[in-house]
Amino acid sequence: MKIDGYKYVRVDENGHFFYQVFLGRDSEGKQHFKKGRKDQKGLNFTSAKAAEAEAMRIKVEYMNRRTEDLRRISYGKFVRQDFLPKYKADVEDSTYASHKRMIMLSVDRFDTKILDEISVRDCEEYRTWLMSDSGFSRDYANVCYVAFRQSLGYAEHLGLITTNVAMKTKAIPKGKAVAKYWTKAEFEKVLGQISTKGFYEHCIYVMLLFYYRTGVRVSEGFALTWNDIDLINQKARIFHTMYYKNKDDYQIKPYTKTKAGKRIITLDDELVQILKDWRQIQLAHGVKKFVLSYDDRPMIKSTLNNVIHKYAKLAGVPSINGRGLRHSHASYLIAELGADVLTVSKRLGHSSPAVTLRYYAHMFDRNDELIAEKMVGSMDLTPAKQSQVKFNGNQVVPFTKVV
After folding, report:
1. Among residues 34, 50, 71, which one ends one of the domains?
2. Count of domains in the chain?
3. Each residue of 268-321: pLDDT tens digit?
4. SS3 content of the chain, % helix, strand, coil (to 5)
5. Structural domain harbouring 50
6. Pairing of strands 31-36, 229-230
7. Where in the numbering of this chain does the Tyr recombinase domain appear (predicted)?
8. Among 15, 35, 46, 91, which residue is least crowded by beta carbons within 10 Å?
9. Claim to verify: residue 142 and residue 287 sit in the same structural domain
């Protein structure tokens, strides 16, 4: 029977006091309790207060021992049973799938290392390996080290370590590699290798042209249905993104990569006419839903990359990837059309012009030349036939034309 005012104390039918303490669950979920009728000296309890005090001592002792045991957990075990499940719940499936490989790199290095024995020196050595002997690009090494820091940060949050020692080391700076893209001339060569007489190849033509002329992200383009295209007002609504494992297992997510990514862009006259013709061709082949599709299922990224590589080789131009088409659009806007940074930022769906400049600042150098060219003949440069102002001293010395 319970006694009011005492959380852990009971009294049996003979009036003797005893305690019962819940000590948690094991790895299989089974509950564990501890009962006792005697204090630390082996004497029976003579009051509920004494039984409660012993129960509290047992509880604290157990918790301290459990905390110490947890702190002896290996880094690999912690990542697998604690960090990865938490990380998977926090991010998109596609993000988890790609970043898990990066997280497991740190597990390969610190698998059996006791979590609270990982030192600043260990972190420095791992950082150095990522930047040198790993062979990774600077950007990839950066993301790997960020993931490692996050894992130790979560261990600190859980109280398994007192300090995230990785934060005492410097972050890995991102690389400054210039993204690969096609110039207008290079893209024209690629288009010149694609025939629109066949249905599948016609789809390839429309797909590459659409990405080049709109700059949408690959997953945004694959998610586009004809409900997102307004051919009358010449607008494309970029409100969704595609997540897929394969052509039969996919989802259209009701959002884009960032909040700013949700946007409506204007389509040019030429692209609109090509889309109108493509729509009719699709309908004749029973394709009704997806814009960039030949079988009414979304295209997959590997197909896009394979197509780009194949036609780049035929055209004799450098090969890029799907993301490179987005960079190509930015280049087209800036270098060929002289677009300003704000226009480019909004069209690409960047969160701010600062993001645009981070990736494409080098392209705006060409705008300086375009502006200089446009200045020629843009104003009347004819001087007055004679001076309308009276000057004194040396200011009245007449100009002598050098022959």
Report:
1. 71
2. 3
3. 999 999 999 999 999 999 999 999 999 999 888 889 999 999 999 999 999 999
4. 55, 10, 35
5. 9-71
6. unpaired
7. 177-375
8. 15
9. no
